[in-house]
Design goal:
CATH superfamily of one domain: Jann2411-like domain
Shape: globular
Largest sheet: 2 strands, antiparallel
Strand order of the largest sheet: 1-2
Low-confidence stretches: none
Bound molecules: zinc ion
Strand content: 5-15%
Length: about 190
């Protein structure tokens, strides 16, 4: 059933993994959480399983996602952080009541409240975005070099010179485009 929906692009950083549920923002956007159930599916694979998700909660999630995208983009280019985006991120963070718990294996898990699990999950994502944008984590916010993407991503590579939000998608496409352009040039059929 889920197969008819676009696949998730999961990353290792929760906040930017969440913003990647909408891709190709500057091209033909692909909405990867088109229904409440798909947000629930995304939360489940991201360690924030919820029992249910309503249309209103999906709206809250998408609002948070776009706020994180706006704030992370501003942070990546050194612009002032946009006030409306900050308000959304801070509200979601304040309203979440998830608890970090330690497993016997020494792993951190999130325990969400029974009444408003989606809000609690969004609170965890908002807090993650805050720590990334505040520069508390080892890495650098950057914008994807793909002109149809321009997603903000968190570069944790040693050299901090990653160019694309995802090598398998944006990176390969750019390489292919360059290769095609070069071949066209060689054959004198450019344009
Ligand atoms: Zn990209």
């Amino acid at each position: 059933m889920s197969a008819e929906f676009p696949e998730f692009r999961l990353g290792s950083v929760l906040a930017t993994s969440f913003t990647a549920t909408l891709t190709e923002r500057r091209g033909d956007p692909v909405e990867r959480i088109p229904t409440p159930q798909r947000l629930a599916d995304w939360l489940a694979v991201s360690g924030l399983a919820v029992d249910s998700c309503t249309a209103d909660q999906l709206d809250l999630g998408r609002e948070l996602r776009e706020a994180i995208h706006a704030a992370a983009t501003a942070a990546a280019v050194g612009d002032p952080l946009p006030g409306p985006a900050l308000r959304v991120i801070n509200d979601r963070s304040a309203q979440g009541r998830a608890a970090a718990v330690l497993t016997p294996e020494g792993e951190r898990r999130w325990r969400l409240g029974p009444a408003s699990a989606v809000e609690d999950a969004l609170g965890v994502i908002a807090a993650d975005a805050i720590s990334v944008i505040a520069g508390e984590r080892d890495g650098r916010l950057a914008l994807c070099a793909s002109p149809t993407c321009r997603a903000a991503f968190f570069d944790t590579s040693q050299s901090r010179t990653r160019k694309w939000c995802e090598m398998n998608t944006c990176g390969n496409r750019q390489k292919k485009a360059r290769f095609t352009a070069k071949r066209r040039g060689e054959h004198g059929a450019a344009g």
